[in-house]
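In response to a reviewer's request, we include the raw inputs and outputs for one of the modeled complexes. The two entities were modeled together in a single run.
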Amino acid sequence: MPAERHGGFGYWRDPVFIISLTIYVINRTLIKPNLHTYSPLFHGHLNDTLTVPVALPIYLLVYRWIGFRPDDEPPRWWEVALHVLVWMIFFEWFGPLVLHHGVGDPIDAWCIAGGGLVAWALWQREWMKRPRVSTRLS
Amino acid sequence: MIPDLPNLTSASSAWMLIALKAVAAMGFMTAANVFILYAC
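The model returned the following structure tokens for the whole complex.
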């Protein structure tokens, strides 16, 4: 059986995921219900910006459980880019046009991409990675 | 040349397993995307 490679990504324990999820929950439960006028930031763009840092770790964790992801390395640039592309198409075109749910907005698509770029940059930082588990026997 | 049948079968099974995992991953992705679209 080939040895599996273990990286330092914590998925649901990842700090970028936890902080982004906290911001999302605060916005949804505390900020949005108390806003009396429509705010493009809190009602739209913030959620789109948080799409990658909140959703991608969970998606990658499921891929890992399925066995489709071979290791626990932090999200690679192409994993982020592929999901950003799928989400831009799904949430900004397919959802509004085919499922008739949501509003297609080019700014939202840029927010998804921008959030993905920032999250990816943070995930590449060494201090974000958890200590690697040594597989060597002593 | 006669193909090595056990190797052929094993390679075919490996590809089938990869294809199955890809289908499972895409199924999850689709379901999760729909959930996010309607719930978030």
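As requested, we also summarize the result in words. Chain A touches chain B at residues 47, 51, 55, 58-59, 62-63, 66-68, 86-87, 90-91, 95, 99, 101-102 (CB under 8 Å). Residues 25 and 31 of chain A are 9 Å apart (CA to CA).
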